[in-house]
Amino acid sequence: MAVTPVGNPYVESSDRVSDYPGASEALAERIDIVGVNPFADSAARATAIPSPTEGMMSSLNDTDAVERYDGATWKPVGGKVLQVVSVFKADTFTTSSTSFVDVTGLTASITPSATSSKILVLATIAYATTVGGYTARAALIRDSTQIGGGTAVGSRGTANARTRQEDATTNIAPTSFNFVDSPNTTLATTYKIQVAGQSGSSVIVGTSAGSDVNAVEQPRLSCTIILMEISA
């Protein structure tokens, strides 16, 4: 049979007819390895390819992910955004707690498709204190664990954001913070924002000033959490 590039067998017009079956089989095997074979889901793939070979490619219709077998596991190809989950809060929330409590409506849940996936968290919160000169803190929570905050030292606890206004009528801008998390799980994972105030003042979420007076210069503001699963 005519000499062809390594790994790319094909039949040339000068080949003998008797060479055709062997060349066709080699070509089919090569396509199985380098081709991107579509499957309904990972279970259907496992049934069709019980013993995959390193370098095999596949696409899954349920997750729209292209994956490559590395000799041990199927892994997503490239740094693709596999899914996006978001929540939007347009109403207000008030608390007088000096320890962190959940903000109603600022909770989002995502189920990673692989343990190697990263979760990019994009959070925006508008909050203020009802008494001037007091502070409020915000924290990002994964399930029941605070993540992405600074290292606590002494009485200086950890938080993802902090705000302080001169007086309760001073307008403040929303605060945004981001964090790349590695939950290392394929189970449903919940992310939420908590807030805490200072003794003697309350924290009000969803407003540009703690007084929240009915005035055009003190608009109501929205809060959001956006979760993006990024393939490894």
Walkthrough of the structure:
The structure is a single chain. By secondary structure, this protein is mainly beta. It folds into 2 domains: 17-76, no CATH class; 81-230, Jelly Rolls (Sandwich). It has 2 helices and 16 strands. The strands form 4 sheets. Strands 7, 10, 11, 12 and 14 form a 5-stranded antiparallel β-sheet that branches.
In short:
9% of the residues lie in helices and 39% in strands.
CATH C-level class of the largest domain is Mainly Beta
Query: Roughly how many Å is the radius of gyration?
Result: 27 Å
In CATH terms, what is the fold-level topology of the largest domain?
Jelly Rolls
Determine the mean pLDDT.
87
| H/I helix tally | 2
Number of DSSP-assigned strands:
16
- Beta content comes to 35-45%
Q: Examine the secondary-structure arrangement and name the CATH architecture of the largest domain.
A: Sandwich
The secondary structure category is mainly beta
Net shape: elongated
Q: How far apart are the first and last residues' alpha carbons, in Å?
A: 42 Å
Helix coverage percent? under 10%
pLDDT < 50 stretches: 1-7
User: How many domains, in number, for the residues?
Assistant: 2
Biggest β-sheet, characterized?
A: 5 strands, antiparallel
What series of H and E elements makes up the topology? HEHEEEEEEEEEEEEEEE
List keywords for this structure.
16 strands; disordered N terminus; elongated; four-stranded mixed β-sheet; about 230 residues; mainly beta; Jelly Rolls; five-stranded antiparallel β-sheet; 2 domains
